[in-house]
Model the fold of this input.
Amino acid sequence: MKKSILISLIFFPIFLFSQAEYGVIGGINNSRLTDGFLKDFETENSFGGLHLGAFMELNLSDKISFYPKILFSQQGDRKKTETQYRFNAPTQIDYKLTYINIPLNIKFFSKPYLFVGPQIGLLINTKKENMDLGDIDSFDYGINLGIGYEFNNFSLETNIYQGNNTLINVYDSALPNPVKRKLTNAVIQISLKYKI
Done:
């Protein structure tokens, strides 16, 4: 009895993942360091980051799937202009950040489909432009929400990611009582994926 339970525990995950579908995904990022939910998020000149990786889809029912990804992702504030200031504090932190992200999404429906879930990210590179305001936290986490449409083995999707972990603190030092701005990642992604 114990042996049969042990064998089941070993082979059940293998059986599950053998039923999964896999593919590759890539696209563009519009990213920004923000101090609130997409607060001060600007689209002008912010494009320039890319993401590339792989995904898995494991059907849990006819309309629900487990939909994790692993992505190389270029984020941060990638505007090409000089650093701007408000109250003697920068409104644009020109840090170009590179992450390995792991979104752990649940996917609903198929044409179109919705997905939502947590995401964790590991910072693998930081390039500081114009000025150094301190080191960025190497770990990021937050929530993603997106929509997509499937056609044959391809899908086109877009999603919004908002980080919840404070990456860096910046002070509005000109105010009578300096205000700490807690900056987090915000990213809009447009992706094309191919199911192998």
Observations:
- The chain has one domain: 20-195.
- The longest helix spans residues 2-18.
